[in-house]
Amino acid sequence: MNYATYVEHVRQDGRRLAAAASGNLSNDVPSCPGWTVSDLVSHVAEVYEHKIACTALGRSPDPWPPEWPSDRDPLEWLGDAHQRLLGMFEASEATTPSATWWPPDQTVGFWARRMAQETAVHRIDAELAIGAPTPVDAELAVDGVDEILVMMLEGDWSDEPDDAATGQRVAISTGGRTWLVTLEREAVSIATEAGDADAALGGDPSDVLLWLWGRAPDERPTRSGDDDAIRLLRARLVLATQ
C-alpha cells in the first residue's frame, strides 16, 4: 500500500472512531477490559500526539507522556490530535525523517502505516462498545496481518522463553498471501511462503487480522490442525501486542 492510501485510512477510520464514540463515552469496551470508550478515545489521542512529537523533535519525546489537562474533553482532544496528525502527514512525504521504534525505518511513512493499523483496530474497539462492529478494509487488513507478524511477533524471545514452543508451525493465509510462523522456545520466525504446518488459520482478511489482535473470537477465522500450536501462537501474540 502506498503512503497516500495509509493516510486516507487514518482519515476515514479516525472519523468513524469518533462517530462511534460520540454519546457513548461511558460505555465499557469489551475488547479492552477495564476501559471505557472515554479511556479508548484518550488513548488514541495520546498515541497521535506521540507520533507528532516524534516527527517534530526528530527523536522519541522524553519524558512521556506529559501532564495533560485533567478537564480536557476526550472527543475534542481526539478531533484536534487527529487533524494535526493528518496535517503532519500532508506536510510530509513517506521518506521524511521521524523517530520510530523500528530501527530499519525511521520515517514518517512508518507512522502512516502504523497509524492506519492503530486507528482501524481502535475504531473496531469503539464499534464493539456500541455493538456495531464493521470489517476492516480488506487490503488494509492483509497489510495489517503482515505488520503484526513480521514487525511485532517475529524475532528474539529469549527474555520470555516458552518451554512448550518446540518448533511448531502455524500457516496463516488470507487475501492470497500466506505466512508460516515457526514457534521456538526463544524465537519466532516468519516465512512468507507455504510449507508443512502443524496448524492453519485463514479466512476473511478482517477476521484474521482481528483474531491476531485479540478482537475476534476463536471461531471467526477458519482453523485446522493442532489446537496446541494455535494456543501457543495466541500466547505469543498477547505478549507481542501489549
Q: How large is the count of helical segments?
A: 7
CATH classification class of the largest domain: Mainly Alpha
Distance between the termini: 25 Å
Estimate the strand proportion: 5-15%
Count of separate structural domains: 2
Rounded Rg: 18 Å
Q: Low-confidence parts lasting 5 or more residues at pLDDT below 50?
A: none
Largest sheet: 6 strands, mixed
CATH fold name of the largest domain: Four Helix Bundle (Hemerythrin (Met), subunit A)
Q: What is the count of β-strands? A: 6
Helix content percent band: 40-55%
Instruction: Assign an overall shape.
Output: globular
Q: CATH homologous superfamily name of the largest domain?
A: dinb family like domain
How do the helices and strands follow one another from N- to C-terminus?
HHHHHEEEEEHEH
> What class do helices, strands and sheet pairing give?
alpha+beta
Strand line-up in the sheet with most strands? 1-4-3-2-5-6
CATH architecture of the largest domain, please?
Up-down Bundle
Please specify the SSE layout and strand pairing:
Layout: H1 3-21, H2 37-57, H3 74-90, H4 108-129, H5 138-153, E1 155-156, E2 168-174, E3 177-183, E4 187-191, E5 199-202, H6 205-212, E6 222-225, H7 227-240
Parallel strand pairs: 2-5
Antiparallel strand pairs: 1-4, 2-3, 3-4, 5-6
Helix pairs in contact: 1-3, 1-4, 2-3, 2-4, 5-6
Commentary on this structure:
Helix 1 (3-21) packs parallel to helix 4 (108-129), helix 2 runs parallel beside helix 3 (74-90) and helix 2 (37-57) packs antiparallel against helix 4. By secondary structure, the protein is an alpha+beta fold. It is globular, with a radius of gyration of 18 Å. It has a six-stranded mixed β-sheet with strand order 1-4-3-2-5-6, covered by helices on one side. It folds into two domains: 3-134, Four Helix Bundle (Hemerythrin (Met), subunit A); 153-240, Nonspecific Lipid-transfer Protein, Chain A, CATH 3.30.1050. The protein contains seven helices and six strands; from the N terminus they run H-H-H-H-H-E-E-E-E-E-H-E-H. Strand 3 and strand 4 form a beta hairpin. The longest helix has 22 residues, at 108-129.
